[in-house]
Design brief:
NAD(P)-bd_dom_sf; Rossmann fold; Ornithine cyclodeaminase family protein; seven-stranded mixed beta sheet; ODC_N; eight-stranded parallel beta sheet; ODC_Mu_crystall; single chain; 23% strand; alpha/beta
Amino acid sequence: MIYLTEAQTSKLISHELAYIAVKEAFVAAVDDKATLFPVVNAQGANLNEMFSLKSASTPNLVGWKTGSYWPDNHKHGLPCHGTNVFLLDPLTGMLQAVIAATTVNAYRTGAADAVAVSYLAREDATVLTVFGTGHQAEYEVLAVSKVRSLTKVLVVGRSASKTENLVKRLLEKGINAEACDAQAACEQADIIITATTAQAPLFEAQWVQAGTHISAMGADKVGKQELPTDLYSHARLFCDFASQSIVIGEFQHSRNTPIIEIGQVINESATGRQSADEVTIFDSSGIAIQDLFVASHILALSQQ
């Protein structure tokens, strides 16, 4: 059995590796030989301590990802979020590898956004608005900057200090960023990313301009919500995995609106953006098959 530590995987992961692996995973997810199992959400002994298990199998990859959130870890100098991926030998079921993947998970989630943007956003999209100021919001922006030539990033956050901190970090990485209020940010945006833990809409539907692409990255539990449902009547909806999206993803709040899985767009069995004026929405509830593919790529790279 192989064990890759957080230090090892953090050095091996990149936006490019994550993008390739996640794109492959999205295509595999719509193959009839893949199975994705219901998410298990659980909690620790104390208030707000949470962990989850997401599992999947394909002919060549079998395993699961565990994610944890222990909010008081920062008091002990430890990260609040933790991720590990477990790979089984598909022939024997024996444990093949354990991949410590906390940093990897941030890249993997950003890559899902980047794949969606590359297939659904307008080619000339240059202004990105991001709701959220946590570490994941930064990874989302960096990943998307790899697939679109961004001229400006508008950051919307509840905390002025956290908003300015994210702006500073993006500027240090060469990305033109500034703080902005929600309405002005939406009205200027070609791409909107939501990366929050919100349980109510972050903006008004009428603020979204024709031709905008929206990536909703935060909803992964019942009750979470980032987008106004008024958007759905005049937008096309896409997701990573439809049966999960309508249970724990953003589209748990949709009502009888057709939803296309992004893997179908990639393999050309469904169409993506159909016009420059169309509003497209991608819901990323996060699927285990992404984690398995990224972990497999990292494992292979570690053995070169």
